[in-house]
Design a protein that fits this description.
Helix content is 41%, strand content 15%. The protein is built from 27 helices and 23 strands. Strand 17, helix 23 and strand 18 form a beta-alpha-beta unit. The chain folds into 4 domains: 202 residues, no CATH class; 146 residues, Rossmann fold (3-Layer(aba) Sandwich), CATH 3.40.50.300; 179 residues, no CATH class; 164 residues, 3-Layer(aba) Sandwich (Rossmann fold), CATH 3.40.50. The protein starts with a helix and ends in an 11-residue tail after the last strand.
C-alpha cells in the first residue's frame, strides 16, 4: 500500500503540472486572439492569419482534456556512472513549464515505451514503474513496481512496504504491467461508451500500437484482448508520429455497424485526436441510403467476389449497337441511324481506355460525325445555299434531343444505382451478365421487383458494395465542375461573447473578408482515399466489401484487426489468407496475435471454449488475466416458464450489477418480444439502435446476437442459445457460423453471464 508521503509527492507534482497546463492554454488563447484582430494587407497575410488561427484552435482542442487525468504513470531509471537516473511522468499529452522544461511526456513518445514494455526479465533500464490514479485534480492512490538492476538486486526505499495482491488475477505467469491498476480499470462498471486504455496498455499491445505504418498489419485477437482499443490507440500513435503526412492524407477507421461506431466514438478525441473519419463500409459509398434487409443467402451471394465479374459484364451489355433503324428530324431533313452506323463505333469505343461514362463522349462525337457526312453527301446540291460547315452540322446533330436519346440507347450514361436497379429488375439483363458465372438458382436469388424509379429503391448494405464496384467501372457521370462554396469559418468554435467588444468586432470584421471560393464538386463515383485505414471486426467483411476498402487505400498502409473465431456474417472471408488475397498487399503483411484476454474473465472463457471448438475454427482461445468469482448461470426451463424466469433473472442482474450495464442478447427475431416483455415488467429496457434512446449507456439493453460484435457489458443474459447456434442452418441444427455467433454473445460480459434455454441446448453447452 502506498505511503501517504508518496501520494503527497505526486500531488505536489500534479499541482505544478496543472499550473503549467493552464499557462499553455493561456498562450494558445493569446495566439488565437492576436490572429483574430490582426490587420490584413494582402492575400498572403490572410493565409498566414488562417494558419495561425487554425494552429491555435487545434492546440486549444488538444489541451482540453476535461476530467481526464493529466498523467497516469511515472518511470524511474537506474543511476549511471555519469549521474542520477532520469524520471519521467507519462500522460495524455506533453506538458512543459514556462522555461520549456518537460514535466509530462506524451504516452506516444519513444521515451514512454518503457512504461508499457518493461518486465522483470527485460526491465529496459527501469528501477521503478509507478501507476498513479488521479480523480479530478487529486491523486487518490498509486502502485509501484520495482525492477532488478544488472546484478539482480532490487533496491527499495527503506520505508517502503511492498504488498502484492492476487485478488482476481489468474496465476499463469503472465507478464502484466501494473496488475493493480489493470484490475482496477477492468473492474470499473461499463458506461456504454468505450474508454481509452492509455493508462493500462500492456507490453504485447504496445508493440502493436507502435508498429511502423508501412504495409498491412494484421492482428488476430480473441474476446477481451483489447484489439479494438489497440487499433484505435494505434491510429492515435500514427497520427502523432507521422502527423505531417497523415493529417494531409487522412486516417479512416472502419467498424461493423453504426452502433459499434457510436460505442467507440469518444476514444480518439479523449486521446487528443479528432481528425479521424469513422465509418462503416456502406457509409463510404456516398448517396446510398441503406435501409433494407435481405436473406442470408442473398447477402452471401452479393458479397461473393464473382459479383465483380457480373458487374463488369453488366456494364458491357449496356454498350450495344442498334438492332434496327431509328430516324429523327433535323431541320427539313430526316436523319436515319441504322445498325451499320453504330456497330463498329461501339466496338472501337469498347477498346478505348477509360471507364464507361468517359467513353460515351467519343461514341457521341463519332456517330454525329458519321451522320453529318451522310447528310452532306445526300443533301448538298453544290448551289451554295447550304453554308453549314461539317463541324457545325455535327454539333447540331449532337445537340438534338432525339439524337441524345439514340446515344443513350447505344451507350447510356449510368450511375451505379442505375446499373444495379436495371440488372436486378430484368431477368434478361441478369442472364446475359451472369451466364457462366452464377448458377440459375443464384440468378433467381438476385432478381427483385423493379421499382418505378431508382430513387424509390431501398438498398441493402451488400448493395452498397456492388454500387461502389459499378461506379469504378462506369466512372463519373459528369466532369467535376467548380461550384461556389463558403470558406470554412476560421472562428468556428470560438466563443466570441467571452471577449471584449473591440476584439469581438475585429474578429467578425476579419471573418467577413473571407469571400466565396471555387471548389470542385465531386461526382459520387469519385471517392476519398486515406493514408492509413484501420479496419475493426475485419473477419465479418465480404470480399466485395474488402474491395471497397482497397479502393480507399492510398499508401498500402492498413491495420486490420479481428478474430476468425467470431466471424458471424454470411459472406465473411473464410480465413485471413483469403482476406489478404482480396486486398493484394503491396508488400508482405505482418501478422501478430493478441494472446491475453484482459476483459473477459476466466470463468466465461472456459464456459464458451467448447462452443468455439465446435465451430471448427482453427483459432486458439486467449488466456484470461482475471477471474470474476462467479461461474456462468445455465438455466433450462420449460417454454411456459421461460419468460417469467427470464424476467426474474434479468431483474437480479440489474440489481446486483448496479451501476454497471446489463445486456439481454437473443436472435434478431426475438428482440422485439423481449423488449415488450421487460418493459411490461418495468425493467426499462432500451433498444440501443433507436436514435432517440439512451443507446448503450442505458442500464439494460436488448441487443441482437448478430450485432453484438465488439461490444462489452458488465452482465449478459443470452436467450435461447439453440436458436442462435442454428443461425444459417436450413435444418435447425447448429452451424459453424451460428456457433461462432453464440460464442460472440457469450463472451461479451466482464463480470456475469447467464444462458436461458427452453428449446434445448446445443451440444457444446450440454452438461456431461
Amino acid at each position: 500500500m502506498a505511503h501517504e508521503h508518496d501520494i503527497a509527492e505526486e500531488q505536489e507534482f500534479l499541482s505544478e503540472a496543472l499550473v503549467a497546463l493552464e499557462h499553455m492554454r493561456r498562450e494558445a488563447t493569446a495566439l488565437r486572439d492576436s490572429a483574430s484582430v490582426a490587420t490584413m494587407r494582402g492575400a498572403g497575410d490572410l493565409v498566414e492569419r488562417d494558419v495561425v488561427m487554425g494552429t491555435a484552435l487545434q492546440r486549444l482542442d488538444q489541451l482540453a482534456i476535461g476530467d481526464q487525468p493529466l498523467f497516469f504513470g511515472r518511470i524511474d531509471y537506474f543511476a549511471t556512472e555519469t549521474g542520477p537516473g532520469d524520471t519521467y511522468h507519462v500522460g495524455r499529452l506533453a506538458v512543459s513549464d514556462r522555461d520549456l522544461n518537460p514535466l509530462v511526456v506524451d504516452w506516444r513518445a519513444p521515451v514512454a515505451e518503457a512504461f508499457y514494455r518493461a518486465t522483470g526479465v527485460e526491465p529496459l533500464g527501469l528501477s521503478r514503474r509507478r501507476h498513479v490514479a488521479i480523480r479530478g485534480h487529486e491523486v487518490v492512490s498509486l502502485e509501484d513496481e520495482y525492477f532488478a538492476d544488472a546484478s539482480g538486486e532490487i533496491h527499495l526505499p527503506e520505508d517502503t512496504l511492498r504488498e502484492a495482491t492476487k485478488d482476481g488475477l489468474v496465476d499463469g505467469g503472465l507478464a502484466l504491467g501494473g496488475p493493480g491498476a489493470l484490475l482496477a480499470a477492468l473492474g470499473r462498471a461499463r458506461t456504454g461508451r468505450m474508454g481509452d486504455i492509455v493508462a493500462t496498455i500492456q507490453g504485447e499491445q504496445d508493440r502493436i500500437i507502435r508498429h511502423p505504418a508501412a504495409g498491412i498489419l494484421l492482428v488476430q485477437g480473441g474476446p477481451g484482448t483489447g484489439k479494438t482499443a489497440v487499433a484505435l490507440h494505434r491510429a492515435a500513435y500514427l497520427l502523432f508520429t507521422y502527423r505531417a503526412t497523415l493529417e494531409r492524407q487522412g486516417v479512416l477507421v472502419v467498424g461493423p455497424n453504426p452502433l459499434f461506431l457510436s460505442y467507440i466514438g469518444n476514444v480518439l478525441p479523449s486521446l487528443g485526436e479528432s481528425g479521424v473519419t469513422l465509418s462503416t463500409v456502406a457509409g463510404l459509398v456516398s448517396n446510398v441510403m441503406v435501409g433494407a434487409t435481405e436473406s442470408e443467402e442473398v447477402r452471401r451471394l452479393k458479397g461473393d467476389e464473382r459479383m465483380a465479374q457480373v458487374i463488369l459484364r453488366a456494364v458491357r451489355t449496356r454498350e450495344r449497337p442498334l438492332t434496327k433503324e431509328i430516324s429523327f428530324a433535323l431541320g427539313r431533313a430526316t436523319i436515319v441511324v441504322g445498325p451499320e452506323d453504330t456497330r463498329d463505333i461501339v466496338e472501337r469505343a469498347r477498346r478505348r481506355p477509360g471507364n464507361h461514362n468517359q467513353r460515351r463522349s467519343a461514341v457521341s462525337r463519332e456517330l454525329a460525325t458519321r451522320l453529318a457526312d451522310k447528310y452532306r453527301r445526300r443533301f448538298e446540291n453544290g448551289s451554295g445555299e447550304d453554308s453549314t460547315t461539317h463541324t457545325d452540322l455535327a454539333e447540331q446533330i449532337r445537340s438534338n434531343i432525339d439524337f441524345k436519346q439514340i446515344v443513350q440507347r447505344i451507350w447510356p450514361r449510368l450511375t451505379g444505382q442505375d446499373l444495379l436497379h436495371d440488372l436486378f429488375g430484368s431477368p434478361a439483363l441478369l442472364r446475359v451478365a451472369a451466364r457462366g458465372v452464377l448458377t440459375d438458382e443464384e440468378m433467381s436469388l438476385l432478381l427483385r421487383p423493379r421499382s418505378r424509379s431508382v430513387d424509390e429503391v431501398s438498398w441493402t448494405a451488400a448493395d452498397a458494395a456492388l454500387i461502389d464496384e459499378a461506379r469504378v467501372v462506369l466512372g463519373p457521370r459528369k466532369r467535376p465542375r467548380p461550384v461556389a462554396a463558403r470558406t470554412p469559418e476560421v472562428l468556428d468554435g470560438v466563443d466570441l461573447d467571452s471577449y471584449s467588444g473591440e476584439i469581438r468586432a475585429a474578429a467578425l470584421r476579419e471573418a467577413q473578408r473571407l469571400g466565396t471560393t471555387r471548389v470542385p464538386e465531386l461526382d459520387e463515383a469519385e471517392f476519398v482515399t486515406y493514408g492509413h485505414i484501420v479496419v475493426d471486426e475485419a473477419q465479418d467483411l465480404s470480399p466485395m466489401e474488402l474491395r471497397v476498402l482497397k479502393r480507399r487505400d492510398l499508401a498500402g498502409s492498413m491495420t486490420i484487426v479481428g478474430d476468425m473465431g467470431q466471424a458471424t456474417t454470411p459472406g465473411s472471408a473464410a480465413s485471413w489468407s483469403a482476406l489478404l488475397d482480396v486486398l493484394e498487399p503491396r508488400k508482405e503483411p505482418t501478422r501478430v496475435e493478441l494472446s491475453v484476454s484482459y476483459r473477459t474473465p476466466e470463468e466465461v472463457l472456459d464456459f464458451a471454449a467448447p462452443t468455439l471448438a465446435a465451430a471448427a475454427v482453427d483459432v486458439t482461445p486467449p488466456r484470461a488475466v482475471r477471474r470474476a468469482g462467479a461461474t456462468p448461470d445455465l438455466v433450462e426451463v420449460s417454454r411456459d416458464d421461460r419468460d417469467r424466469t427470464l424476467v426474474e433473472l434479468v431483474r437480479s442482474y440489474v440489481r446486483d450489477l448496479t451501476p454497471g450495464r446489463v445486456a439481454v442478447i437473443a436472435t434478431q427475431e426475438e428482440c422485439a418480444h423481449l423488449l415488450t416483455l421487460l418493459t411490461e415488467a418495468e425493467l426499462d429496457p432500451v433498444d440501443p439502435l433507436r436514435e432517440d434512446g439512451r443507446g448503450l449507456g442505458a442500464d439494460l439493453v436488448v441487443v441482437s446476437a448478430e450485432g453484438a460484435n465488439g461490444l462489452e457489458f458488465d452482465g449478459v443474459v443470452v436467450v435461447e442459445p439453440g436458436r442462435i447456434a442454428a443461425r444459417g442452418s436450413r435444418d435447425g441444427s447448429p452451424s459453424p457460423r451460428g456457433l461462432r455467433t453464440l460464442y460472440v454473445a457469450m463472451t461479451r460480459p466482464t463480470r456475469r453471464l447467464a444462458v436461458v434455454a427452453s428449446e434445448g441446448l446445443p451440444p457444446s453447452l450440454q452438461r456431461p
